[in-house]
Design a protein that fits this description.
Subunit structure (chains A, B, C, D): Homotetramer.
Number of strands of chain A: 15
Protein name (chains A, B, C, D): Inositol 2-dehydrogenase
InterPro entries (chains A, B, C, D): Gfo-Idh-MocA_inositol_DH (IPR050424), Gfo/Idh/MocA-like_OxRdtase_N (IPR000683), GFO_IDH_MocA-like_dom (IPR055170), MI/DCI_dehydrogenase (IPR023794), NAD(P)-bd_dom_sf (IPR036291)
Oligomer: homotetramer
Structural class of chain A: alpha/beta
CATH topology of the largest domain in chain A: Rossmann fold
Shape of chain A: globular
Number of helices of chain A: 10
EC number (chains A, B, C, D): 1.1.1.18
Largest interface: A-D, 37 and 37 residues
Radius of gyration of chain A: 20 Å
CATH architecture of the largest domain in chain A: 3-Layer(aba) Sandwich
Family (chains A, B, C, D): Belongs to the Gfo/Idh/MocA family.
């Protein structure tokens, strides 16, 4: 494969630091060439012991550093648009953590900028597409054996929500994964959304509408329902059942090790997404590195990032209004056809 | 237990004939004393070989026949109201197949008649309350270990629908089971209903809206969603997941025999409700016979029958209007407190 | 079906009392006509409230009591032979709890006595043949879809053993169920047995060889292995996997209700055989009553009872010697062909 | 991590070629420095497109090639001993595919040679120790929550055996995985083995004793039984249930995606070990590369390789004799304490 791919990592927070570790120790074919973070001390600490890495307070300086051939954006969401545009300006391939851009107006600007370039540079971090179970489900739906999908029943549960988590974030942070997964699994855009609000659980922080039950309609007449419950207390569970004309398929029930003790026969439930999706993150980054070194861009596109933003925004509006809310997407540039 | 309970069976169609068999051969403590059906020949055939059974074209004549101490109503739904009132007039205990009375106005008349009597005589045939799995789920919810129920996710799938099955019948015939089960499991009345209509499956008869996705709200703020899909083609599946504040519990996944053949490890799925709920029917009738012989009435009441009718009617209206539709129940007589 | 079948129940211990309840309250078509037990007070208590039941200290007196048309033997094993022969002498149909006769010499005497009669009167209480899961497994093996069975992997676990339970009883009491089940499922006699003795569990009483691992060979070259562990502490588990030439099938994993709480997703494990096999007992007795009233005898035969004794004896010898021990069966009378 | 680790790969057959791909494209931190294979053309083809790789017909020449810092042995088993000793002579760390050395006499020579060196250089390719499920099982057994392990029930099934597969290879090729897994899970040596031979399956090649049922006894009094069935026709299944004093745990039942079609609800069964253990192979090699670059040796040792050979040999003897066969291990050098 020749030389290692020089990567600039923007942002050294939780996800950024994890990606630095992954690029250095898990993924083959890449090396960290530069990092950027306003907190210079943290940036230095994140790459301590690595050779040949330059450290910068400013993202653009990192992009211009020697040896940088690609960019991984793990800075806070509001900084993504500027970083993506800077990478585009330099012709650098990008892996950008989700959300691509938090608001759909900014997301559309990114889409339009890349469309003007006329070639794809950006891959968005919807890592479920790299999860082994989701891939098996996608493959099963695509082979047509179960017929046309009619409904997706989805569950998204977290043990507890972090401080500052808002009712809107159940949709634009948590359900955004299901938004992309549904679009990808069905190969259809989502056209309307309704949010139902059961009486909040006792375990939810005061004022947080948790759980919520979110209904999406698709351009093909399918229905996607999502239970999102971020303070369920009992585990991290991501499930998806696709109900099709000739059968149904369900992923996400953990059955890998059955433990029988007094009174129960069961399996452990992972308590964290890093446990559940560890392999998916690895595959995601590896896939990106490999494609980049071949001069290609595969995986989720900027259009996927934009569509997720747009649908999530409609979802938040539906949450606030209590009404069915349509999703209006911009025209899809030919680049993403 | 002394003498056998003399039962008059009204109606010798599919369900009536099955109940005659059950009373005669499965259930202890009962005997068939009389049957009634406008089709006298069928009625005679249904009790061929049984001693001491009188056969009548007219229900009231059967109720007045010698030895009749109780009534099992298995005639078509529109005949139920008159039969129930006739049984009430004679002070006879009744087991009445669902729907108690198809329209909620007539159902309410039955409730009021029984309330005037001042004592319960009628048990309604919601046999899921006698299913072993439902009972375990009810028991688990009642013991409080999982906390307050927030949502019920229900699935109700049939291989195919019989001729003449209408879009409304998905709700007032199929989902009526979930209506009673949800009321019973949660101990709450249902207050609103919304029906979503995904694009119909290719396997559904022309013009039938199948599947449907039905959402109920409850007086306590819980949410009940039901996928009803009566031409799914792959099996008879009834599932219910109760999502509570401290955990979830799911019934209806068939795991009793795992068969591994080339390429799959799985279980057979029953193709018929008579297979899945055979024990439940037995327990239902046995429980009724036993209680009757003790001079008691237990199990689902006329109020339960009325409430199911009323909610189903609201559901059909929601289906037709596309709108969220509230359920307005009459005041509950003290008898059913 | 005409009049109720008059049954004499011999023995009013744990099983006898349960069968009295079942005949009276669960099973249709039968009534208790007489009971016998050396402990007259207990016998009277067991039938308190039942009409028309005569109570006897002596089994033969009960058999001769008015109205007795059939016998259910639930007395201790050593009393079975005499009771069976007495029933045969009177031409009375019998349902005899297992073990039919504890020693195979006595068991063979029973077989020979019935063979001399020239017609079957006895059914032996191997109730697993009435369990829904075992029946599904038997049916699957019989239809030939999985090809010839090569191995049965069996598990038989109890929470704890009763006082006085000996190492031999793991075989002749516990594994005797697997002996009959294997013979029935495979349609083959067992020809050799080997018993392995892992180091006993800490929870086993001092001196009890628990667990044991028992290997049976069959006349057709199949292998049957049984883990028997009667102080496992965690539940009552009966499992059986049939490994065949074209697939395998496993029963006994309880999956009927999945409960998810913090850290686990699982199901309850029953703690008692009466819970697990309640339906099987009911079906067993009902089937016997029905066949008896039709003048027929179906179900496990005296030959089955004898074969179980003979194999269990060989098993105990194998346990004691540590050697592979062959099973020598008498010639099978034509009656049981 | 500094420079990439230069690896010499010996053997470019099926496994060798797969490891070359893995080192080049999956694993970070390594590069192929040299390859050796008597078939020079195949060797050249295996590294086509890779820079800086020298190709040799002779293993020792590859070990002496520039840039070689470590060795991966994937040549046929009979060549392993010489290659291991050559690596030891040069102080090179080795990852050696199983079997380390096919005969236990040669395996012991390797152990002794490494013991003379006084430091570990060799890791043996028992990749199950890197499988996520096995690691969870090991971790559960080690934490003591389930108490002392009493029995391991193992299943090892292949769809079909390759040409030339012999009855002995069911033990020394297939069951050798269970031998290492049992030793590792229990932390005990195996002391005796018995092999039972059910009548062969119709699908097994003429003359092959398939399936077999293998029983191991351990120094701690535990029992390990293995069903090995290499022409089962229905899938690749590796299962292990550990029965302990306070509970049991089972791995290997595939439940990750439940597919419901007409008449069955089930999951796909993988058809190949490369599918089932893909992650394990990756983790294995990555772990080795990482440890090697840190100057350490972790993972399965030469002693483990020797012990597996010795037990497998006893197993083959037990197969041939039909007798219980003891395993006699050499004294364990202090290096492996």
């Amino acid at each position: 494969m020749g030389d290692l791919l020089g990567v600039a990592v923007l942002g050294v927070g939780h996800m950024g630091a994890d990606h630095i570790r992954r690029l250095d120790r898990v993924v083959s074919g890449a090396r960290i060439a530069a990092v950027a973070d306003p907190d210079l001390a943290s940036a230095k600490e994140a790459v301590a012991g690595l050779d040949g890495v330059s450290v910068h307070p400013d993202p653009e300086a990192a992009l211009d550093a020697p040896g940088v051939q690609a960019v991984l954006i793990a800075s806070p969401g509001p900084a993504h648009e500027e970083a993506l545009l800077a990478a585009f300006a330099r012709g650098l391939p990008v892996l950008c953590e989700k959300p691509m851009v938090p608001d759909s107006v900014g997301a559309l600007r990114v889409v339009e900028a890349e469309a003007r370039l006329g070639r794809r540079l950006a891959q968005i971090g919807f890592m479920r597409r790299y999860d082994a179970e989701y891939r098996r489900l996608k493959s099963l739906l695509d082979d047509g054996r179960l017929g046309r999908p009619l409904m997706l029943h989805c569950t998204h549960r977290n043990v507890s929500s972090p401080p500052g988590f808002t009712s809107a974030m159940l949709i634009n942070s948590s359900v955004s994964h299901e938004i992309d997964a549904a679009r990808w699994l069905l190969g259809q855009e989502l056209t309307a959304v309704t949010v139902l609000r059961p009486r909040p659980a006792a375990g939810a922080p005061e004022g947080l509408l948790d759980p919520q039950f979110v209904l999406f309609e698709t351009e093909g007449g399918a229905l996607v329902d999502v239970e999102v419950f971020v303070n369920c207390g009992f585990g991290y569970q991501v499930r998806c059942e696709a109900v099709c004309e000739a059968g149904s398929a369900r992923i996400g029930d953990e059955h890998s090790m059955l433990v029988t003790t007094r009174g129960t026969a069961g399996e452990e439930v992972p308590q964290d997404y890093l446990v559940r999706f560890a392999d998916a993150y690895d595959r995601e980054v590896q896939s990106w590195v490999d494609a980049t070194r071949r001069g290609q861009v595969t995986g989720p596109s900027a259009w996927d990032g934009y569509a997720a933003s747009a649908v999530a925004e409609a979802g938040v509006r539906a949450l606030e209004s209590g009404d069915r809310t349509t999703v209006d997407l911009a025209r899809r540039p030919d680049l993403y056809a």
